[in-house]
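User: I'll paste a sequence; please echo it back and then give the predicted structure.

Assistant: Echoing your sequence first, then the prediction.
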Amino acid sequence: MGESRERKRRDRRLIMTCYPAWIASQLAPKALSETGLFLLCIQFAVLISVHYSYPIFMNLIMSEAIRPATRNDAAAICEIYNHYVLNTVISFETEAVSVDEMRARIDDTLQQFPWLVYEVDGRILGYAYASKWKVRKAYQHSVEGSVYLSQDSGGRGVGTRLYQALIGELAQLSVHAVLGGIVLPNPGSVALHEKLGFVKVAHLPQIGRKFEQWLDVGYWQLILDEKN
């Protein structure tokens, strides 16, 4: 199944790469004939129409969904998350998370909060979940949201759609405030949060240390009652 999905993605990339060249090859010979000018214009209009409708067509045939995570997603989620653990300061964890540990985290989270995955053609491109902000009882209506994307999924709106879906589900629960912690600087994450209505409420300088450097963390907050 994995090979089949990879083959489909490879075929799509090949089509997108060769398609403009194919259009040119169809048009060039006829451009030399004045008598074929009228038919050339018609064919050109048709080809342009097909060219611009192609991405829409590809989106229709691709299987794309945001759905609740299951224990079976643990390996794919680990593959996404452990890149951030081992190679970036975005996560403050320093050791790779095992599949068994990730299964336990998914199980624990789903007892109280949503955990969502973004899946295209059977491949998970990102995930989002909520966790308790703090364990003391008075904090019970506040959560922290987290979103992680695979390395080839940036700039496609996946993070926005995941976070919107997560916020929508949290709004159906007894959640009043959603907080997002961001290791700074991270302009992409800041832009995502502020696009969704989050407001910066805290800046903690040099609160963490990883890869031999002190790190600042900022917190952005969204009040669901005000958003709704």
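The domain at 64-227 is CATH 3.40.630.30 (Aminopeptidase). The longest strand covers residues 199-210.
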